[in-house]
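Researcher: Next entry in the queue.
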Amino acid sequence: MLHISIAAGLVLGLLTGLLAAAGSDLFMAIALGSAPFGTAFMNAIRMVVIPLVMAVIFSGVANLGDLRKLGRLGGTTLAFFWATVPPAIVIGMGTMFAGLRFAPDVSAPAAAAREASELPGLVDFLVNLIPSNPFAAASAGSLLPLIVFTALFAAAAGSLDEAPRQRLVGFADAAGEALIKLVWWILWTAPIGIFGLAAPVTAQLGWGLIQSLAVFVISVVLALGIYVTVVYLPILKFVGGIGPATFFGGTFGATSIAFSTTSTAAALPVTLDEVHRNLGVSETVTDLVVPLGASMYRAGSALFQGAAIIFLAHLYDTPIPAAALGGAILATFLVSLTVAPVPSSSVVTLAPALDTVGVPLAGLSILLGVDRIPDMFRTSVNLMGQMTTAVVVDRWVGGDQGVGGGGGGSPADPESTPHDGGGSSAPDGR
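Model: Structure for this entry, 430 residues:
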């Protein structure tokens, strides 16, 4: 499977780098000679990130229709999604800050790092979010203003009559499908590319890089546990009247499927049944909230991305100004709501946030190699969030409220739907 091949490329790169760091001239030559493969791989990722993010965000937002027509049920659902994602990002960042105290003091090659631009202040930062020329922003690689423009354009498209809206959405969907196919092709070269990126870095950092990756994985898993404990469980108890034992026991089947397959889509049939039967949510709410959540609500993925930003900034010794950190949170928030349906897309779509804080994109390749373990845990948290939303919306709004003409989502998890054309299951189930 693809994730096994990617992990193998990382392991071989780490071993080659360790042997080079131990003094082997042969392995040092191999490590340095493999660098062009890593550069080519990252160039391919950069090539597709901007159009892919734009297509997916446009399609996701425009498909909601006119936000004014969502009604209380749809509006409450979206409000819960939007309110609970920023705390996840902050918890991920905070936990990683704390975890880095246990990481060795290493620094990736200075030539790969670049300083984040100092932003003058909050007002200027907000003004700069609106690009005077979206095409110039795309050309310059300024992803955050481009994402804001795309989201606003998509919201405007969603308010159009059905025929023109569907034409725009159809074009975005077709472009997205083509770009997803291209990403799959690129990812099949990932084992070689990741080897070419990991080997030279490990040759310089040695065991420090491996220890840092272990700290990263442990910190992400702990942060996910903290988030569920301080956000979802209190909400379930005080709003839904459901205790932890009832919640975990009643949703064990769906959660176990999501954990093992890293796909909330694979667990969707069981999720619908358990949310209605075991958690007492009405069918009306269940049938809207759970599929919509599977399409666009991934707080666990947002938490992972927040932690990854801090980790890679530490690895590349990149200072993060306060204004740039705010931009990274905003970029992560927007991307997490419409994550692209490609394997490990929580890693791939980190590019806008990393661009905001000035962290080299080369760090993404290292995260791809160890992503399987965090993926299982964050997918489970994503599913718990979707079920928690259903409980909350049912208690607040009730099952007698409809969606007034927009809204709704496809009952598919866009980050884990197979799009490789070869029967492979995408290993990233946000």
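Model: The chain has one domain: 2-396.
Researcher: Noted, moving on.
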